[in-house]
Write a structure and sequence with these properties.
Elements (H helix, E strand, L loop, with lengths): L1 H47 L7 H8 L2 H34 L5 H13 L2 H11 L5 H8 L15 H25 L3 H9 L4 H12 L1 H16 L2 H11 L4 H12 L4 H26 L21 H27 L16 H9 L1 H34 L3 H15 L2 H12 L14 H11 L1 H13 L3 H9 L4 H30 L15 H10 L3 H23 L15
Helix pairs in contact: 1-13, 1-17, 1-18, 3-7, 3-10, 4-7, 4-14, 5-11, 5-14, 7-10, 7-11, 8-9, 10-13, 12-13, 13-18, 14-24, 15-24, 16-19, 16-20, 16-22, 18-19, 20-22, 21-22, 22-24, 23-24
Length: 578
């Protein structure tokens, strides 16, 4: 009798182990379906059928509106022009870092990547203050007798200003992809070209650039998508300059009309998504138009700069001084003075703005705490989801699992404001059975974070699982270990460092983001990202600068913390990793 009882218990335990994996997968399907697939399905349906039935005439009239056409053309032209600038700067930087003997590469790469991690609205605010009539740069120009802009003139409030800042901000995206492509360039090909008498220019034109073409087009895709979906720079420069884009059109309509504008903004959001996907498809087609696979050793080629080494290093660090130190120092100067445009001296120096940002201004303090706990909760939940989804992607890559992965990647690739509109449409009505709406609460922001940032933590987690030997999991299975036991004792400890890196990346991104939450915040559910724009629009430039400086300090602290994990992480998990 005891033998039968033991056998029954063992069989029951086996059944529970077999049920665990399908249950976890089903839970992932439900969560990703509700957070990503269903909201975007609702967005498409609302755009095509605002009254419940397809209305082609209404859609045609809306798209033929002169304001929409103008915003679409501006979006396309700004996206393409800024992408070209990002390509030039990012490819040149990747060349210097990957192929030359430039010294202090790690520090330079960290400085070059830093603007990408800083919120774009803070970058825009810093540059606005760096080029203001009362700035240090203006005083320097006046001191040497060079002309500067008049008091009422701001050159960044223009189409060219938007392109300039977007190009600078997204250049690190091109740098990351092109650097990875150049590192895979076999040295034998370049050496053979040199032996054949090819000059440096010929080698670059006929060998290096053609082989790096897929990486260059991949970087162009990232830069274009980021430029089209960058709300912070487009809003802070485009709205005052009266240069409308689709993303600012969505923001202004929802701000002025409210939820009643959702049918129209759904069309604009769908148009933004279509432009983004078209840019990705075109880049993929151009990048794969010719097969550039080569055989050879993975030994990379390095170019010695020779006598040009020191001038090149001076120019590289001068670029950092101009594009990073200058705007951030202007931001800090404004934060340390009593009024915008004042020179920093002992009479004007004050810490009052930082005191107001941390303790004296309830709205800012509330936004900090809201962002902190929302981001922390989102990072923890996404890390757990990514660990289990990475398990299925690594060991059981079925069509369903690949579909979940595709949904997470697509949601991350689309501009955050599209996610915000989709979340508003889906969660505006009361939830079934629960009879309450998430709209106007912090939970709709959390839902949008979970939808938008899953891929960000999933990528490094997948890299961690790729380093785990599959035989470990198979051996545990043969020994009778269940799903939870294998995850707890074997897989999670080995994948934890990579997952933690993904957690920090999510925290860095979500804490300061604006694209996703700018449409979802209310006076009671404010987050720190949109606060910069609201303070600047309200005329509190010094306070906005202080908040921006605090956000940069948090970014730096988190980047340095993540860098401490470098020795335990797979290569390339951190963007600034050497």
């Amino acid at each position: 009798m005891s033998v039968l009882s033991n056998e029954w218990r063992r069989s029951a335990a086996t059944r529970r182990r077999l049920r665990a994996e399908p249950l976890v997968l089903a839970l992932l399907v439900v969560i990703i379906g509700l957070l990503s697939v269903a909201p975007f399905g609702r967005l498409i349906w609302t755009a095509l059928a605002p009254q419940g039935m397809p209305d082609v005439a209404h859609l045609t009239r809306l798209l033929a509106n002169r304001r929409v056409i103008n915003a679409t053309l501006n979006t396309l032209s700004i996206g393409m022009a800024s992408t070209l600038l990002s390509l030039l700067l990012g490819t040149l930087a990747a060349w210097l870092v990957a192929l030359t003997n430039l010294r202090a590469k790690a520090a330079w790469v960290f400085a070059f990547i830093l603007p990408l991690m800083i919120p774009p609205q803070v970058i825009a605010l810093a540059w606005l203050q760096a080029l203001a009539p009362g700035s240090t740069l203006a005083a320097l120009f006046n001191a040497v007798g060079l002309p500067w802009f008049s008091p009422g003139e701001q050159p960044l409030y223009s189409w060219a200003g938007i392109v300039l800042l977007l190009g600078l901000h997204n250049a690190p995206l091109v740098f990351l992809t092109v650097r990875a492509g150049l590192r895979r360039l076999p040295a034998e090909l370049v050496e053979a070209a040199r032996i054949s008498g090819a000059s440096h220019g010929q080698i670059a034109r006929t060998v290096i650039l053609p082989l790096a073409r897929p990486a260059i087009f991949a970087g162009a895709t990232l830069a274009f998508v980021a430029a089209v979906g960058n709300f912070g720079i487009q809003a802070m420069l485009g709205i005052p300059a009266r240069v409308p884009t689709l993303i600012t059109l969505v923001y202004q309509q929802l701000n002025s009309i409210g939820p009643g504008a959702l049918p129209n903004t759904a069309v604009y959001s769908l148009l933004i998504a279509m432009i983004t996907l078209a840019g990705m498809a075109l880049s993929a087609w151009l990048g794969n138009k010719r097969d550039v696979r080569v055989s050879g050793s993975p030994r990379p080629w390095h170019q010695t700069l020779g006598s040009a080494r020191l001038p090149t290093e001076i120019a590289a660090w001068a670029w950092m001084l101009l594009t990073l130190v200058l705007p951030l120092s202007a931001l800090l100067t404004t934060a340390l003075t009593r009024g915008f445009g004042q020179a920093l001296n002992w009479q004007t120096l004050t810490l009052e703005n930082f005191q107001q940002a941390l303790w004296g201004y309830p709205a800012v303090r509330h936004a900090f705490f809201t962002s902190l706990w929302l981001t922390s909760l989102a990072a923890v939940v996404l890390t757990v989801m990514a660990l289990f989804l990475a398990f299925f992607l690594s060991w059981q890559r079925t069509r369903l699992v690949r579909g979940l992965w595709f949904a997470s990647e697509l949601t991350y690739a689309l501009p955050g404001i599209v996610t915000g509109v989709a979340a508003m449409l889906f969660f505006l009505r009361p939830l079934p059975l629960l009879e309450f709406s998430l709209y106007g609460t912090v939970w709709i922001i959390l839902a949008a974070y979970l939808s938008n940032f899953l891929a960000l933590v999933l990528r490094p987690t997948l890299a961690g699982f790729a380093q785990i030997e599959p035989s470990l999991d198979e051996a545990a299975r043969l020994c009778g270990a269940g799903f939870w036991q294998r995850m707890r004792d074997i897989l999670l400890p080995l994948a934890a460092p990579s997952a933690l890196a993904g957690t920090l990346l999510v925290f860095l991104t979500a804490l300061n983001e604006i694209q996703v939450s700018v449409l979802l915040v209310t006076s009671e559910t404010q987050t720190i990202g949109p606060t910069i724009i609201f303070l600047d629009e309200g005329g509190s430039a010094p306070l906005a600068a202080a908040v921006g400086c605090l956000m940069i300090a948090v970014v730096l602290a988190l980047m340095l913390l993540a860098s401490r994990l470098t020795v335990r992480l797979p290569q390339g998990v951190l963007p600034w990793q050497a």
